[in-house]
Amino acid sequence: LVQDVRPLLTSVCETNQPLGLTKQVQLNATIPDTPLIAKVDSSRLQQVLTNLIANAIKFSPEHSTVQLTARRDGDLLEVTVRDQGPGIPEAFKAHLFEQFAQADAGDNRQHAGTGLGLAISKALIEQMRGEIGYRTPSGPGAEFFVRLPLSSPETD
Questions:
Q1: pLDDT over 90 percentage in the chain
Q2: pLDDT tens digits, residue range 4-27?
Q3: pLDDT digit string (tens) for 143-153?
Q4: Which residues are within 8 A (CB) of 56 and not within 5 positions of it... i.e. 6 or more apart?
Q5: Which residue, of 2, 30, 85, 107, has the fewest CB within 10 Å?
């Protein structure tokens, strides 16, 4: 469905706010005032962003902030989710989007999870002709991004 994704982004943030409150993590959103029109599967994009936000909250220290930012980058929509947690170990970065991959795998894991969220997210975003990735931010934390082609209601 071709639509303005800004309401979906706002909804995802509102839906995940209670999770942040349970860990005393603030969830902030920066969403532009101008429309961001893209052909997306709303429920699947919401699933991906919820996974990224939930991961960011899970790995964030108390009293920190998770930041969701949406912006136009040429003919692409880019949504980033950045936390202030420990970041991704260098040796694990190449395996982030593999099934069952977990940086804290083993018997003494600190965080629960199946290791499927990012692999599923990658498949869903690719079905929408987009990409999902990770980049090391300046400073502490982790930053994941989703990039999707923008469109216009008249052409798609």
A1: 72
A2: 999 999 999 999 999 999 999 999
A3: 999 999 999 75
A4: 66, 81, 82, 83, 85, 142, 144
A5: 107
Alpha-carbon distances of 18 from 24, 26, 57, 78, 122, rounded to whole Å: 9, 10, 11, 25, 25
Query: Residue 27: phi, psi to the nearest 5?
Result: -110, 115
CA distance 97 to 133: 8
CA distance 2 to 30: 22
In DSSP terms, 144 is beta-bridged to: 81, 134
- Amino acid occupying residue 137: P
**Are 136 and 143 contacting, i.e. CB atoms less than 8 angstroms apart?**
yes
- pLDDT tens digits along 54-81: 999 999 999 999 999 999 999 999 999 9
